[in-house]
Every structure is written in structure tokens, then in C-alpha cells.
Amino acid sequence: MIARRRFVAGLGAAAAWPVSARAQSLKKHRIGFVGLTNPSPAHMARLAGLISGLRDFGYEDGRNMTLEVKWADNYYSRLPEIFAEMVRIKVDVIVTHGTPGVIAAKKATSTIPIIFAVAGDALASGLIASLARPGGNVTGLTYFNPELAAKRLELLKEILPHLRKLAFS
Fold first, then answer.
1. How many Å apart are CA 56 and CA 111, to the nearest integer?
2. Helix or strand run (H / E) with residue 13
3. pLDDT digits 0-9 by tens, 98-146
4. How far is CA 84 from CA 61, 71, 119, in A?
5. Which of 107, 116, 137, 157 gets the highest tally of CB atoms within 10 A of its CB?
6. Nearest partner of 38 among 94, 87, 76, judged by Cα
7. Which pLDDT tens digit goes with each residue over 92-109?
8. 68 strand-pairing partners
9. Hey, what's the torsion of the CAs at 69, 72, 77, 79, to 10 degrees?
């Protein structure tokens, strides 16, 4: 009797799952992309990479997401206006690159997730609170040049323990 109830309950849950999954997938996501430069062929190739990556995860522009693309054309003074527009049109996520872009995006919103392709030292520039607990709504790839340089020197010293002088440019 208990096994039969479990079976019927499981069957009902299995039958309802595709309906709820379909309902969730009907939401059309809005992704805001802000390029700091201009839509040159090299930068369009990077945007094409983003679109291809989204497609790999089942997101296609016009079908289940809308990609809002804006370019600052190297006029960083336009960034606050561009990110304010992204907030106004209620994008679900903002994708950008470069420290100036991430800083402007972070000033524009504390609730919309911000993903950056690359930025300078996220800790030193105030993009995150700490490496252990970044907090906030910002995530992405960052350079740790001072930390990396020190670590590389440490590794070189391990490999070449008799090294006394080193020069690099």
C-alpha cells in the first residue's frame, strides 16, 4: 500500500516536472552587453564568442533571450549613461569587460548580476570586498599581477636555488 502511494506520488511529480520546466524556460532572459570600445571586427569576434557560448547552454537571441548590445566607442564618460539604460530596461545580467566598465556597472546597480570578461586587480580597484568573500553582485576574471610576479619569483628561486641576480623587462 505504501509502495503504491509512493509510486503514484512519484508518477504525479514526474508528470508535473516537464510542465514546470517548460514554464520556466518560457521566460525570455535579457542580457546586456556593454563593450568599452567599438564594434570593430576583432571586438565583434569576441561578442560572437559570447553568443556561441550562450548557444552552447541553450540560449538563443530571439528565442529564449534578448541580447542588448551597447558600445561606448572608447568614450568612458558615456558608461554611466549606458549602464543606467541597462538598469532602466531591466536586463537580467550585465556582461562587460575592463576595469572602467565594471566600476561604472557597479555604480549603476547593486542588484543586477555583473559578469566581466577581464579587469585589473578586482580587490585593489574596489570591485570586490575580499578574495575569500567577494560579496556583492560582481564576478569575473581578474589579473593578480603583483601576486603572480611574487609567486613566479618564488618558483624560480625553488627551481634555481643558487640564483643570486635576476633581471627582467
1. 26
2. helix 2-25
3. 999 999 999 999 999 999 988 888 888 888 888 778 889 999 887 766 6
4. 22, 14, 20
5. 116
6. 76
7. 999 999 999 999 999 999
8. 32
9. 20
> What are the Cα distances from residue 148, in Å, to 27, 52, 139, 143, 145?
42, 31, 20, 9, 5
Distances (CA, A) of 88 to 18, 32, 119: 33, 11, 25
The number of CA neighbours under 13 Å toward the Cβ of 72 is 24
Q: Are 89 and 68 in contact (CB under 8 A)?
A: yes
Cell numbers of 37, please?
570600445
Cell of 9: 506520488
Name all domains of the chain by residue range, CATH numbers in brackets. 27-144 (3.40.50.2300)
What does the alpha-carbon distance between residue 26 and residue 29 come to, in Å, rounded to a whole number? 9
